[in-house]
Amino acid sequence: xxxxxxxxxxxxxxxxxxxxxxxxxxxxxxxxxxxxxxxxxxxxxxxxxxxxxxxxxxxxxxxxxxxxxxxxxxxxxxxxxxxxxxxxxxxxxxxxxxxxxxxxxxxxxxxxxxxxxxxxxxxxxxxxxxxxxxxxxxxxxxxxxxxxxxxxxxxxxxxxxxxxxxxxxxxxxxxxxxxxxxxxxxxxxxxxxxxxxxxxxxxxxxxxxxxxxxxxxxxxxxxxxxxxxxxxxxxxxxxxxxxxxxxxxxxxxxxxxxxxxxxxxxxxxxxxxxxxxxxxxxxxx
Length: 285
Ligand code: FAD
Prior knowledge:
Blueprint: H1 3-7, E1 12-17, H2 30-37, E2 43-46, H3 56-70, E3 73-79, H4 85-97, E4 102-106, H5 123-133, E5 137-142, H6 153-165, E6 170-175, H7 179-191, E7 198-202, H8 208-218, H9 224-233, H10 237-257, E8 262-266, H11 271-281
Parallel strand pairs: 1-2, 1-8, 2-3, 3-4, 4-5, 5-6, 6-7, 7-8
Helix pairs in contact: 2-11, 5-6, 9-10, 10-11
The protein binds flavin-adenine dinucleotide.
């Protein structure tokens, strides 16, 4: 099923997981998938290594497992900086053979150690190519606090509009810890004539190094109320886990009450996180 059709009917719930690093670890992901699928999400997305890593064939394997064993719609992430058109054609073929209908088209992060092929410069180039070559439902990424390379919000919105005009059927945001940032971004997209549904990306923060890494990588800001939680509980692992989970669940409750199009939960393949999240929201959706 094409995920864009689900947004027409309801608030969409989705999870994100990544393929395990070790080749033989796919079976170990079942514990997380069992918890996640018990909540009957509308889709589960599977990340993809921007550097063209050999782990990337695990992305499609894991997506197939989600579809065939758990009967949940998968969304396959695909980055484009390091691929040429022939390689993307192969992906399209593999997705078709696997019965996968949904792709999140991404540019991928720039990395001086990774050779770019220059055939796809932006996610919009990949989106229009996928649309011209297939029947895939194509999603795009967006950034309530701006992409780290952007210099201004208006430029960022103009680029997002180009991406949507190239064919994005729906959007998923980078994680954020302050819902008001999302509400104001959403309003700006509508003013700019960017109309596809947008799922709000939420990641439970359960340890201090995770939040520091996250902020340096994606530029999400740390609200004062969350900084206080970290300062109080940084040396108490269990308390920080509980506080981080409650904070994320609080964000989800507020977003649902504000009638967002969808919630996308970054679960970090952690069954304990998945279980606590699912327990916290199961009666709400
Ligand atoms: P783009 O939409 O191409 O934007 C990148 C930058 O270029 C932005 O600053 C934008 O404003 C600018 N830009 C866009 N179009 C133009 C234009 N025409 N002219 C000038 N400037 C332009 N990374 C992975 O490696 N694997 C994953 O699985 C993965 N999953 C993700 C899932 C989500 C929900 C999100 C939000 C991000 C994910 N990322 C992933 C990270 C993503 O690859 C990086 O953030 C990357 O730097 C940008 O990707 P993009 O698709 O948003 O790029």
